[in-house]
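Sequence in, structure out. Go.
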Amino acid sequence: MRLVRLQGATNFRDLGGYAGREGRPVRWRRLFRSDHLSRLTRDDHASLSGLGLQRSIDFRGLAERAASPYQLPGVVQHSLAIEPTVVQRMEEMASTERELTGPIVVGLMEDLYRSLVNEQAGRFGELFQQLLREEGPLVFHCTAGKDRTGVAAALVLLALGVSREQVMRDYLLTNEVFEPPEVPHARTPPEALRVLWRVQESFLGAALDAIEAEHGEIDRYLTHRLGLTPAALDTLADRYLES
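Output:
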């Protein structure tokens, strides 16, 4: 089952099963993606213990981590902080009394995704170094598990040879499972919130199109921007794809 059902997180998913290089499927129970883990219950901890998790990679910014810390028994945490920007930009626009419409927020989200693959390439390179360093099961996550985590999952799957079409389908699964928090945003119109708390094909498409525009293909981006050699890509395939 791809979705790991938990009481304290709604977007915890297994990346296994997708067809990668030479048709070899991604191994199950090795790579997981999630929303934040600070609300997990004791039963959730037991469920995750059964998965054999050894590491968590946290893309949340410093204030996000401080506001919602967590501990998972037997799991080593690694912070690869990527500070959130869209909510801040929305708040700045609201303070100037500029109307926040759905299309405006769509544009903000597409800009975010372009900046993630360009300005935050170093963080994603560090994620791949974690994947190469040890073989044990790991989870990477941010707050909602949809944007920073969505780009990370896309890059990992593409590095393993999963097709762009399948990567996009995995990305869009967030809309089926993620339950947004009940946080009051009195100054944010419902139309804008509906965009903010969901994913759209154009968001991830903006990131992937930016990669293709600058590098031509994903492998060149992985090599030139994330520092992955052909040998490292082979190691990833051997480690995370079925034989």
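Check: The CA atoms of residues 157 and 167 lie 7 Å apart. The first strand starts at residue 13 and ends at 14.
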